């Protein structure tokens, strides 16, 4: 199943699980877009040089930002 943007959503009705198109946006802009696509997402903004746990959670989306607060890598669930 594909959205009009061309990004696959996986199974019909399943939430989107990755957002490569958000690289370069602010953390706030990225969070808003993720919540539009996946309303139950638990957002974590990760500042530069911070460590995160390695556990996997299907509802978590980490937003890794650079020193200017811009998204520096593609977002995904986990």
Automatic annotation (TrEMBL):
One of its GO terms (molecular function) is serine-type endopeptidase inhibitor activity. The keyword Amino-acid biosynthesis does not apply. The keyword Transferase does not apply. It holds the Pfam family potato_inhibit. InterPro entries: Prot_inh_pot1, Prot_inh_pot1_sf. PROSITE patterns: POTATO_INHIBITOR. The lineage of its organism: Eukaryota, Viridiplantae, Streptophyta, Embryophyta, Tracheophyta. This is Subtilisin inhibitor 1. Keywords: Protease inhibitor, Serine protease inhibitor. Belongs to the protease inhibitor I13 (potato type I serine protease inhibitor) family. It comes from the Eukaryota.
